[in-house]
Write a structure and sequence with these properties.
The complex is a heterodimer of chains A (498) and B (635). With 498 residues, chain A is mostly helical. Helix content of chain A is 75%, strand content 3%. Chain A has a two-stranded antiparallel sheet. Chain B is 72% helix and 3% strand. The chains are: A mainly alpha (498), B mainly alpha (635). At the A-B interface, helix 12, helix 15, helix 18, helix 19 and helix 20 of A face strand 1, helix 5, helix 6 and helix 25 of B.
C-alpha cells in the first residue's frame, strides 16, 4: 500500500468520482459517501506526510513505468517536501469542501460531487507527477471539472466567466506543451530530473522561460493576466471558489518552483526584474483595486492576487539576493517564505470564501453596499469572519504573517525599494480587509429578518480552519524544517547551473 | 524564576480563553473574578521576578521558550530577556492591568458582553507582556501588532455605534502605517547584524563595520533603520502627525482608555526605543528628529486639550502631550529618564482616566464637561483622587510628576546644541500648557455649580470603583521617590549616559527653584483667573490670538489630511479598477482581441461570397500583382 500510495491518492478519488455518477441524486447516503471518500483520501495524505522522510531531499514514493514508449512518456510519480505539503493542503481543502457541500441545496448533486472528486485526484496528480507530459495531462485535465463546476453550477453570467477562464488557461497550457516538446526534442526526455541536469543555451532558456512563465503566470495569476480570476470567482459557486483560490492558484505557483526556475535558471535570471516588477504591481496595484470592489467575492479574489504577488516576489528575488549577499541560506529562506505564503493563503482564502458563501446563502446578495450589521444577526459566524479578515491582512499569530515577514525581509536584502513596496501591503491589506468588515459585519442592520447563525458543520469547518491558521502562525518551525532540505537541494540545483 | 516568567503569559492567555470561550458555563460575575485574580496572580509573580532582578547586581535572564523559526541562519525564538529595564516595565504593565481589571468588574457590570470585554483586556495585557519580555525584534513586533489588534477590537467594542467602528478602523490603519516602516526597520537591523536577537545585536554593535554599510537619502544605515523603527513608535506612541487615532480611541469603554494610555500600547513605542537604546546611541540625525517630534508633540497637542470639552478627550490629548515629553527625553539619549516619566505617568494617567470613568458613571454617561461642575461635594473621594492626579500631571512639587518631568527638563540642558535648547523652551511652555488644561478640567468639573440634570441621582460609586482610585492615588503621590532606581538603571548591560544627581533633597530644592515651577505658577494664575473666577482678559480678544485659537481648535487639520489620503486611496482604487482592469485589460485586450477577430472574420466572410466571377476576378487581380512585383524586381 505505502509503495503505491501516490497512485492510490490519485485514482481513488477519480474512480470513486466516476462511480458516484451512477447514484441517484436523492440517495440518502450520498453525502456520507462523498465525505467519507474525501476523508479517506485526506487520511491517506496524512499517512504520506507522516511516512515522508524530510531529511532526504530526493523524490520519494517513486512509481515508474514506461507508459507510452514510442513517445518517451513515463507514468512517473514521486514527491518531495513541497509536493507533500501541497497534497495535504489539497486533500484537506477537498475534505472541507465536501463537508460544506453537504449543507447546501444543489441541483444534480451526484455530478457536482463527481466533479470535485475528480478534481481532487487530478490535483494530486499535478503535484506528484515527475514526468513533464504526465504533469501536463493532469494540469490540463484539471480544467475540465473546474470548467464544469463554474459553467453548470455558477451564477448568472457563468458562461462568459467560464469561457474566459478556459481560454485564458488553455492559452497558457499550449505554450507549456510547446516548451515541453521542445525540451524533449533536445534531450529526448520528459523526466524532470533529467531536465534539471540539461544544459540549454542562454537563448533557449530565455525562450523557454517566456513560454512557461506565461503559462504559470496566467494560472497564479500575475498582473496583467489576472482579470479572469475575479470573474471566475464571482460566478463560481462557493465550493468552486474555494477550490479555485485554495488549490488552483497554487498549481501555478508550484509550476514556477518546479518547472520554471530550476529548469531554466538562466532564463529566469535574465527576466527576473520584470517578474519582480509584476509581482510588486500585483501586491500594490491589485491591492488598491481590491479596496473599492462592491462584490465581496471580487474583493477577496483581488486580495488573493495581491497575496500571490508575494509568492512570485519571493521566487524571483533570489537571483538578486544571491548577487548581493552571495549567501545560499538567504535563497532557501526566501523560497520557504514563498512556500509558506502558498500554504497559508490556501487556508485563509478558503475560509474567507466559505464565509462569503454563507452570507450569500442567507442574504442572497454578495454586494457590500446591501449588507451591514451582520454581527447582530449572526454573532458566531461574524467573529469567524473578523478573524479571517484579520488573518488576511497578515496579523502576527496567523499563518500569513510568517510568509509576508520572510519575503519582506528577503526582498530588503535584494533591494530597499522592493521591500518598501512589498511592505505597503500592511496598509493596503488592512484597508480592504477591515473596511470590508466595517461595512458588512459591524454597524446597523441593513437587511432585516431572522437569520440562522452558523450551523454545526459550518462551525466545525471554520473552527478547523481557524485552528490551522493559528497553529501555522504560532509554530511555523515544523513546516519550515519540513521543507528545508528539499529547498536546499533545489537552491543548490539552481545555483550550480547559473 | 523561569517557570514564574513562563506562567505570566500563560495565565494571561488562559484568562482570555476562559472568559472568551466559556459561553454558558460561567456567569459574568465569576468570569470577572477569575480574570481579575489570574491577572493579579501574574502581577504578584512579576513582583517576585522584579525583586530578584533588583536584589542582584547584574542579573539578566535570557532564554527561549521555543523556537519559532530556525532554518539555517534565520533564527527567531519566542522567549524572554529580563533585565532591570524590562522587569520594571513588567511590573508597571501588570499592576495597571490588575487595577483596571478590578475596576472593570464594576464599571462593565451592566454590559451584555461583559465576558468579551474581559477576554479582550486579558489578551491586551498578554500582547503587551509578549512585547515587554521579548528577546528579539520579531517577538517584539508580534506583541506590537497584537496590542494594535486588541485595541482595534476594544475601540470597536460597541460595534453598533458608527463612530466606534470608524474610530477603530482609523486606529488600526494609522498603526499599520507605523508598522509598515517598523518592519522595514527590522529588516534593516536584521540585514546589518544577521540576527533578530537583542543580545547578539547589542554585543556585536561595536564590531559593526559602519563604513561598509550603505547610506540612503543622505542618512547613514543605522540612522535610517532607527528612524524607520521610530516611525513605528510614532504611530504607537501617538506622535505628530500619527497621533490622530488616540483621541478617537475614546470610543471604547473608559477602563480601556486607562489601559491604553497608561501601560499598554502607547508606552510600547517609548519602551521599544529604550530597549534598543544601544542601537539608538549610534544615531546622529535620527535623535534630533526624535527630539523635534517629541517636543512639538508635547507643546502643540497640549494646546488642543485647552479647548476640548469632552472629559475623556482632554485626558487623551494630555496623554499625547506627556508622551511628547518621554519622546523628547529619548531624543537626548536619556532613555531611563524617559522611562521614569513613563512609570510615573502610568499611575497618574490611569488614575485620571479611572476618575473620569467614575464621574461619567455617576453622571449616567455624560462626558461633556460643560454639563458637569460642582462635583467636589457630590463625589468627594473621586475629587480628591482627581486632584492628586492633576497635581501629579502638572508636576506639583513632591508629587511623582514633579520628579519625572523635572528630570526630563534638566537633561535637556545637558547637550549643548540649539535643537535641544529649543526643545527645552518648548517643553517649559508645554509644562505651562499642561498646567492650564489640567486645572481647567479640574475647575470646570469639580468647582462651581452643577450644570447637568438629575442633580440628586449623582452619587459616589461602589467600593470596587473607589479602591483602584485610592491605590493609584497613593502611587501617584509616592512613586516619584524611587527616582534613584531609574537614574542608576542599566539597559541590558550598559549604563546609560551620565545623569547629574546628588541625592533626593538637592534634587527637590533644585527642582523647586527651576523655570518649571515658575511656569507652574503662571499656569495656576491663568487658570484660576480664567476658569475659576471667569475673568475676561482683554488680550484674549486680540486678532492674532483668536486666529491661533481657530487653528488649534481645528486640531491643525491633521484629521482632514488623513481623511483626504484615504479618499485618495479609494478614488485611485476606483480609477484603477474601472480604467485599467475593466477598460484597458479586459475591454481592450482580453475581450477586445476576440472582438477584433470577429470583425475580421465577418469582413473575410464577405469576400468569400460564393460567386464564381468574384473568385475569377480575385485570381486575375492576384496574378497581375504578382507579375507586377516580378517585373519591378527584374527591371
Amino acid at each position: 500500500m505505502i509503495d503505491n500510495i501516490l497512485s492510490a491518492l490519485i485514482w481513488i478519488p477519480i474512480i470513486s468520482g466516476l462511480l458516484i455518477l451512477f447514484y441517484n441524486n436523492k440517495h440518502s447516503y450520498l453525502n456520507i459517501i462523498n465525505i467519507s471518500i474525501n476523508l479517506f483520501v485526506f487520511i491517506l495524505s496524512i499517512l504520506l506526510l507522516v511516512s515522508f522522510n524530510k531529511n532526504i531531499s530526493d523524490f520519494q514514493f517513486i512509481e515508474n513505468f514506461n507508459w507510452i514508449p514510442s513517445l518517451n512518456i513515463f507514468y512517473y510519480l514521486g514527491v518531495d517536501a513541497i509536493s507533500v505539503l501541497l497534497i495535504v493542503l489539497n486533500t484537506l481543502i477537498f475534505f472541507i469542501v465536501s463537508l460544506y457541500n453537504s449543507t447546501l441545496k444543489i441541483k444534480k448533486r451526484t455530478h457536482y460531487y463527481a466533479s470535485f472528486l475528480i478534481a481532487n485526484g487530478l490535483t494530486i496528480g499535478v503535484f506528484s507527477a515527475i514526468d513533464a507530459i504526465l504533469f501536463y495531462i493532469f494540469f490540463e485535465a484539471l480544467l475540465i471539472p473546474m470548467f464544469l463546476i463554474i459553467g453548470i453550477w455558477g451564477g448568472s453570467n457563468r458562461i462568459y466567466a467560464t469561457v474566459k477562464f478556459f481560454i485564458y488557461t488553455f492559452l497558457g497550457s499550449i505554450l507549456l506543451l510547446i516548451s515541453f516538446i521542445y525540451i524533449n526534442s533536445q534531450i529526448s526526455s520528459f523526466n524532470i530530473l533529467t531536465i534539471y541536469d540539461a544544459n540549454f543555451s542562454l537563448k533557449e532558456q530565455e525562450w523557454l522561460f517566456i513560454a512557461m512563465a506565461i503559462a504559470f503566470a496566467i494560472k497564479i495569476p500575475m498582473f496583467p493576466f489576472h482579470t479572469w480570476l475575479p470573474d471566475a470567482h464571482v460566478e463560481a459557486p462557493t465550493s468552486g471558489s474555494v477550490i479555485l483560490a485554495a488549490i488552483l492558484l497554487k498549481v501555478g505557483a508550484y509550476g514556477f518552483i518546479r518547472y520554471v526556475i530550476p529548469v531554466v535558471p538562466l532564463g529566469a535570471l535574465s527576466f527576473d526584474i520584470y517578474l519582480i516588477i509584476l509581482s510588486i504591481i500585483a501586491i500594490v496595484y491589485v491591492g488598491i483595486v481590491a479596496i473599492t470592489q462592491d462584490d465581496m467575492k471580487k474583493l477577496i479574489a483581488y486580495s488573493s492576487i495581491s497575496h500571490m504577488g508575494f509568492v512570485t516576489l519571493g521566487f524571483f528575488i533570489i537571483f538578486q539576493l544571491f548577487e548581493n549577499t552571495s549567501s545560499y541560506e538567504d535563497i532557501v529562506i526566501s523560497l520557504s517564505g514563498s512556500m509558506y505564503q502558498i500554504l497559508s493563503h490556501g487556508f485563509i482564502s478558503a475560509a474567507l470564501f466559505i464565509c462569503v458563501g454563507s452570507i450569500y446563502d442567507r442574504y442572497k446578495t454578495k454586494k457590500i453596499s446591501d449588507l451591514g450589521g451582520i454581527i447582530n444577526q449572526m454573532p458566531i459566524y461574524s467573529w469567524f469572519f473578523v478573524f479571517f479578515a484579520l488573518a488576511n491582512c497578515g496579523l502576527p499569530g496567523t499563518s500569513s504573517f510568517v510568509g509576508e515577514l520572510i519575503i519582506i525581509i528577503s526582498s530588503f536584502k535584494a533591494n530597499f525599494l522592493y521591500a518598501f513596496f512589498a511592505s505597503t501591503t500592511l496598509i493596503v491589506s488592512a484597508f480592504y480587509s477591515l473596511w470590508l468588515v466595517k461595512r458588512v459585519i459591524y454597524g446597523e442592520i441593513n437587511i432585516k429578518g431572522e437569520y440562522i447563525d452558523a450551523n454545526f458543520i459550518e462551525k466545525v469547518i471554520l473552527a478547523l480552519l481557524a485552528l490551522i491558521v493559528l497553529i501555522l502562525g504560532i509554530y511555523p518551525d515544523y513546516l519550515m524544517m519540513f521543507m528545508n532540505s528539499t529547498l536546499e537541494n533545489m537552491t543548490n540545483n539552481i545555483l550550480t547551473r547559473l | 524564576m523561569e517557570s514564574l516568567l513562563l506562567s505570566i503569559p500563560i495565565l494571561l492567555i488562559l484568562s482570555s480563553i476562559i472568559t472568551g470561550f466559556s459561553s454558558k458555563l460561567l456567569n459574568n460575575f465569576y468570569s470577572g473574578i477569575i480574570s481579575t485574580s489570574l491577572v493579579t496572580l501574574s502581577f504578584i509573580f512579576s513582583i517576585i521576578i522584579c525583586f530578584n532582578i533588583y536584589s542582584s547586581d547584574n542579573l539578566i535572564l535570557y532564554e527561549n521558550f521555543y523556537s519559532w523559526i530556525s532554518v539555517s541562519n534565520f533564527n527567531i525564538g519566542i522567549g524572554y530577556l529580563i533585565d532591570k529595564y524590562s522587569a520594571a516595565m513588567l511590573v508597571v504593565v501588570l499592576l495597571i492591568s490588575s487595577v483596571v481589571h478590578l475596576y472593570s468588574m464594576s464599571y462593565m457590570e451592566k454590559e451584555k458582553e461583559y465576558k468579551r470585554f474581559f477576554s479582550y483586556i486579558a489578551l491586551f495585557t498578554f500582547s503587551m507582556i509578549l512585547l515587554v519580555i521579548s528577546n528579539n525584534l520579531i517577538q517584539l513586533f508580534i506583541g506590537w501588532e497584537g496590542v494594535g489588534l486588541v485595541s482595534y477590537l476594544l475601540i470597536g467594542f460597541f460595534y453598533k455605534k458608527r463612530s466606534a467602528i470608524h474610530a477603530n478602523l482609523k486606529a488600526f490603519l494609522i498603526n499599520r502605517i507605523g508598522d509598515m516602516f517598523f518592519i522595514l526597520g527590522i529588516a534593516m537591523i536584521y540585514t546589518a547584524f544577521d540576527s533578530f536577537d537583542y543580545r547578539t545585536i547589542f554585543l556585536n554593535i561595536n564590531e559593526l563595520d559602519l563604513d561598509n554599510l550603505k547610506t540612503y537619502f543622505g542618512l547613514s544605515y543605522i540612522d535610517l533603520s532607527c528612524l524607520l523603527l521610530f516611525i513605528g513608535a510614532m504611530a504607537k506612541s501617538a506622535q505628530i502627525p500619527l497621533h490622530i487615532w488616540l483621541p478617537d480611541s475614546m470610543e471604547g469603554p473608559t477602563p480601556i482608555s486607562a489601559l491604553i494610555h497608561a501601560a499598554t500600547m502607547v508606552t510600547a513605542g517609548i519602551f521599544m526605543v529604550g530597549r534598543l537604546s544601544p542601537v539608538y546611541e549610534m544615531c546622529y540625525i535620527t535623535t534630533n528628529i526624535i527630539l523635534i517630534v517629541g517636543a512639538s508633540t508635547a507643546l502643540f497637542i497640549g494646546l488642543i486639550a485647552i479647548f476640548e470639552n469632552d472629559i475623556k478627550k482632554v485626558i487623551a490629548y494630555s496623554t499625547i502631550s506627556q508622551l511628547g515629553y518621554m519622546v523628547s527625553a529619548l531624543g537626548i539619549n536619556a532613555y531611563t529618564v524617559s522611562f521614569f516619566h513613563l512609570y510615573t505617568h502610568a499611575f497618574f494617567k490611569a488614575l485620571l482616566f479611572l476618575c473620569a470613568g467614575s464621574v461619567i458613571m455617576s453622571l449616567h454617561h455624560n462626558q461633556d464637561i460643560l454639563k458637569m461642575g460642582g462635583l467636589k461635594s457630590k463625589l468627594p473621594i473621586t475629587y480628591i483622587c482627581f486632584l492628586i492626579g492633576t497635581l501629579s500631571i502638572i508636576g506639583f512639587p513632591l508629587t511623582s510628576g514633579f520628579f519625572s518631568k523635572d528630570l526630563i527638563l534638566e537633561v535637556m540642558l545637558y547637550k549643548d546644541s540649539t535643537i535641544s535648547f529649543v526643545a527645552y523652551v518648548m517643553l517649559i511652555l508645554g509644562a505651562l500648557v499642561t498646567t492650564i488644561y489640567s486645572l481647567r478640567l479640574l475647575f470646570i468639573v469639580f468647582y462651581g455649580d452643577y450644570r447637568g440634570d438629575n442633580a440628586n441621582s449623582v452619587k459616589e460609586q461602589s467600593l470596587i470603583i473607589l479602591i483602584p482610585l485610592i491605590i493609584l492615588a497613593l502611587l501617584s503621590l509616592f512613586s516619584g521617590y524611587s527616582i534613584k532606581i531609574f537614574i542608576d538603571m542599566p539597559i541590558f548591560m550598559w549604563s546609560p549616559s551620565e545623569i547629574k544627581y546628588q541625592g533626593l533633597l538637592p534634587f527637590i530644592t533644585h527642582g523647586i527653584f527651576s523655570p518649571a515651577t515658575f511656569s507652574l505658577l503662571i499656569g495656576f494664575y491663568i487658570s484660576i483667573k480664567l476658569y475659576k473666577e471667569k475673568t475676561d482678559f482683554k488680550f484674549l480678544k486680540f486678532f492674532l490670538f483668536e486666529k491661533s485659537v481657530v487653528a488649534i481648535k481645528s486640531k491643525y487639520k491633521f484629521d482632514e489630511l488623513f481623511l483626504y489620503l484615504s479618499l485618495f486611496m479609494k478614488k485611485s482604487s476606483l480609477y484603477f479598477s474601472n480604467k485599467m482592469d475593466i477598460a484597458l485589460i479586459d475591454g481592450f485586450i482580453v475581450n477586445g482581441i476576440p472582438k477584433r477577430i470577429n470583425i475580421l472574420s465577418t469582413y473575410l466572410r464577405t469576400i468569400s461570397s460564393g460567386y464564381l466571377y468574384h473568385y475569377a476576378f480575385l485570381i486575375v487581380l492576384s496574378l497581375v500583382i504578382i507579375f507586377a512585383v516580378i517585373l519591378v524586381r527584374v527591371l
